[in-house]
């Protein structure tokens, strides 16, 4: 698996922490580095197209994506959370994420797992999300 760790935006500067070094590209992946970089960028772009309907910020910038794994067959496994376990779209949002990431060219099967450990808190938001929500 190529684990794209720290995919949530860096709260300190609002930039994405994902890079080729974070994906495991240097550990013998069957996916060429350029392709893995493109997949990473495209997957993050797809995640940014999914919004929490109650919050006018995408789920990536909110810090709801905890982990993305891309295996050598280009199957993608995503761990995500919600701003609150009782979120009214808890059953729908993983499907939205799966649909968005499945649309990325070159991606195989997509699985989305809902996790609540650690619980989400506002410190996971990017600066972009903080500005959009006037959260400073």
UniProtKB/TrEMBL annotation:
Name listed for the protein in its UniProt record: SUF system Fe-S cluster assembly protein
Cross-referenced PANTHER family: FE-S PROTEIN MATURATION AUXILIARY FACTOR YITW (PTHR42831)
The MIP18 family-like domain, residue ranges: 41-112
Protein origin, superkingdom: Bacteria
Species for this entry: Microbaculum marinisediminis
Pfam family, any one: FeS_assembly_P
Region annotation (Disordered) ranges: 1-34
Low complexity bias spans: 7-30
Annotated NCBIfam families: SUF_assoc
